[in-house]
Amino acid sequence: MNRGFFISIEGLDGAGKSTQHALLAKHLAENGEKVLPLREPGATDVGEKIRAILKDKTFQHPPAAEVELLLFLASRAQLVRERIMPALQSGYVVLCDRFIDSTIAYQCGGRGISSKSISALHRFASGGLVPDLTILLDLAPEEGFRRINIGRKTALDRIEEQSMDFFRRVHKSYGRIAIKNPQRVVVLDGSLPPDSIGEKVRTTVCERIYRFRNDVNRSMRGPAI
Ligand code: T5A
Question: Is residue 224 one of the residues assigned to a domain?
Answer without folding.
Answer: no
